[in-house]
Amino acid sequence: LKTVGSTKSDFLRETEVEEYKEYLRNFLNTELIKNNVTKIEVMNEPSHLYNIVDGFAVSDDDSGIEKKAEAYARMVKATKEVVDTIEDKDYKVGILSLTGISTEAAKKFADLTFKNLSIDDFDTLTLHPYLSVSNSPEGILGKQVDYYKNLANGVESGVNTENYYYFNKTEPMWHTEFGYSSSKETNSANLSVKDEYEQAKMVIRALDELKQNNPNDLTYIYEISSGGTDIDEPEDNFEMIRSCNSEHPYSAKFSYLAVANYNSLTANATDVSREIASNNQYVTKYQMSNRDTYLVRTTSKYGSILDYDFGTNNVYYYDLFGWYFG
Q1: Quick one: angle between helices 17-28 and 62-83, nearest 10?
Q2: What is the C-alpha radius of gyration for the chain, rounded to an integer number of angstroms?
């Protein structure tokens, strides 16, 4: 559940806080929401999509980001205050909802937001960790995610800031939006991969990197069903299931099959670690109580011969989509 301000570009105004709290309290007490919702993400990409604070437009310079962070923290506090009053329900509140997580603007927004909050104002962090398809080094996604986790929990390693916060949050992070488009045209974030097979491969690569970082983090892929099907529109074709229309029936794309296979083979992993990262080959071990799963891939467009000792001859091989081949 994503809570919202007054418009898509306007942060919750100071004069609207009490009305918002009354609305949210009534909403969270409804039977439908109580029975189906456990997690609340405060706003959608506030540092990116919102630029009006208390009726005035702000820019993305340091002064504008500071105003945005103050307004966002105001909404976070109001949300958590209401959530804590709801009886017989343990809602969790996730904050930040950041995209462009490698940018200095996103890092500054997080830093200034934390500065306006206390340990009791939220439960966990949420990110939209889109991984660019162009020249993204292996392992970079985990490092980008760790920046925010370290910043929030007082871990200095890898955090370039004068401020460290000690929220000590143990709730898994929520990666509430990421995915890739199979459109032919590339968008500004380099998330278009030209075809459905490449879309499936990139989704699995990103999932693999996120799980290496922390197997307990929760990941939500954008998107399940179609928000648009124009093959030349880079903001369309993120879906994993095609909507039924005159051109094709309701059906799965390659990415849906790949994610279903990935989940089936790795769902119970208690530890995830990179075993090989050399010669264009990458092997990730998903450790489970009854067996281990290894995700094996190459970045070579010509393919490569796997030279890896699994420690046993009792090995079953499956392709990207779950087809058994030996």
Answers
A1: 40
A2: 21
Q: Rounded to whole angstroms, how far apart are CA atoms 35 and 40?
A: 14
- Classified as helix, coil or strand, 285 is strand
Distances (CA, A) of 21 to 50, 123, 261: 20, 18, 42
Closest residue by Cα to residue 297 from 283, 311, 309, 317: 283
User: Token pair for residue 36?
Assistant: 């189906």
Q: Which of the two residues, 166 and 295, has the higher pLDDT score?
A: 295
Give per-residue pLDDT as tens, 53-91: 998 999 888 899 999 999 999 999 999 999 999 999 999
Structure tokens at 218: 């929760």
Dist. CA 62–CA 108, nearest whole Å = 8
How far is it, in rounded angstroms, from Cα 5 to Cα 7? 6
**Taking CA 160 as the corner, what is the angle to CA 157 and CA 166, rounded to the nearest 5 degrees?**
60
In a 3-state reduction of DSSP, which class is residue 256? helix
Beta strands 56-57 and 52-53: pairing type? antiparallel
Write the single-letter amino acid at 50: Y
Tell me the pTM: 0.90
By C-alpha distance, which of 118, 97, 113, 89 is closest to 25? 89
Determine the length of the chain: 326
Three-state SS string across 17-38, please? HHHHHHHHHHHHCCHHHHHHCC
The DSSP code for 148 is H
Residue 217 is which amino acid? Answer: D
